[in-house]
Fold this protein.
Amino acid sequence: GAGVSQSPSNKVTEKGKDVELRCDPISGHTALYWYRQSLGQGLEFLIYFQGNSAPDKSGLPSDRFSAERTGGSVSTLTIQRTQQEDSAVYLCASSLLLGPGDEKLFFGSGTQLSVL
Amino acid sequence: GDSVTQMEGPVTLSEEAFLTINCTYTATGYPSLFWYVQYPGEGLQLLLKATKADDKGSNKGFEATYRKETTSFHLEKGSVQVSDSAVYFCALRGNNRLAFGKGNQVVVIP
């Protein structure tokens, strides 16, 4: 497809279970981001992948969160032993660098995660 | 660290009214600044940007000017339409990320 694709669009899970969220970025985009959008909290940065460089994991809220990006394309965000406070919309974006400090992010529609 | 602050609370206004959404930033140096918009049921998309001081970004009748003296990037539109109802996010390009504000819900009433 032409845009960033995320799956599933909705995920309901029980507290303590593990979940995997998937992101297919736009072909050719070397940068990929994960953000979390909670009600009234805006967008919280989680992790950033750029090409073959080591990812910037500084936004991951705990060691229950991890992400990988295979072959420089598809990315998976994994949340282990989910907690109710993990409930949020998880957004993936890939980007086109337009110049130094100038970047355009293309966002997916997100995965709505609900932890019961 | 680098951050942006948006005015609190939703904004409700009538069609053809003037819209302003305030955004101020804290950063080292002069980062690029952006406004992203999220229409109902859609993903975030870039609305406009400014990459250096005094630049004015514009798109779809919206404008924002990069003011380094006041560290601001306020979004304005002279005459809003119902179709402008959305959530608007201010953002800056920091180190390895876009840092976003909390967003403002804008509701335009016919």
Q: What stands out?
A: The first strand of chain A starts at residue 5 and ends at 7. Chain A has a mean pLDDT of 92.
